[in-house]
What does this fold into?
Amino acid sequence: MAARKKTTQASARASAPTRGSRGKTRAGAFFPVSPLRTGLPRNYAEILSEIKKRIRAERLRVVMAANAAMVLLYWDIGQLILERQERAGWGAKVIDRLSADLREAFPDMKGFSPRNLKYMRAFAAAWPERSFVQQAAAQIPWFHNCLLLDRVADAATRAWYINTASEEGWSRNILSLQIDGRAHQRRGKALTNFKATLPPTDSDMAAQIFKDPYLFDFLGTADPRRESEVEQALVDHIQRFLLELGSGFAFVGRQVQLAFASRDYFLDLLFYHLELRCYVVIELKAVPFDPAFIGQINVYLSAVDDLLRHPGDKPTIGLLLCRSKDKIVVEYALRDLKKPIGVAGWETKLVEKLPENLKGSLPTVEELEAELSREEDER
It folds into this structure.
């Protein structure tokens, strides 16, 4: 009996996995675990990181290639529909029939609804040149293009949003917010002295990064009267604030203390820009521009360059945000400075309230929604 028991135990040990298992095991069933990291080559972590990086890059390339192919296919379909409408007078009924036949022929594919076919037609009409579609419009998702067709009438403005959305990786919701905020009219509009204080390549990039005015609509319609209120609200909404600033900004701190022997100063907001490779000091003012503000931010820039800047960092840039400004006064205030500074306005809304005499002549939100619903039903 003892001999038989010993034989059974030996058989179990032989059939059970000797490594890579945990807990109870039985022949043919166990939970595998990763081998221990001990005994691996010294450069294993580096090789693993490189392989993961290449896999992610390839996955992204495949996704982008698939998206580009789909957008170009949609353009081709839209172009064919346009040609047939011009030559044979195709109408809405033909598009409905075409939609049904395509969905029957390709049941595993989406995107052949009558509504989407009409978007394809509008897409082809908006961009007659296939080369532009291939180089630009196909680099953003299809529904980004549909949103631009719905919301932006001007071709040049639409192209600006396509290129910027592609460069900065905007989601559809962010693209919608940027259109609402008229980003194309504000980007690169701040008054600066960058050409005189930065190398040409850096000055061009920095000039395009800063806006005028900055739109803090997420603060609501209230009119903050103190800088501290604005600062706190921006930090409370840091995600929206970073979105408004643009890509590349990394938040460092608020009310960053600068201590001198005589007194302490506090930098309103401190950021680091990953593309410019420099610190950015932002000073907020709830009052119109005053030339004295330039002297204050100039001190902060000098201190950051001397005490925080690393050897590989480029000169710190200042951004002064005021409620309003006189362009000529700002230009004189910046003219002979050696530190790079930009001046821009900030607003909680871009569109002022309608005059009383116009309020009754425009449709209400409810009327607009009802009209859009009727148009949707007609499609």
The chain has a mean pLDDT of 81. Residues 56-180 form one domain. The chain is about 55% helix and 10% strand.
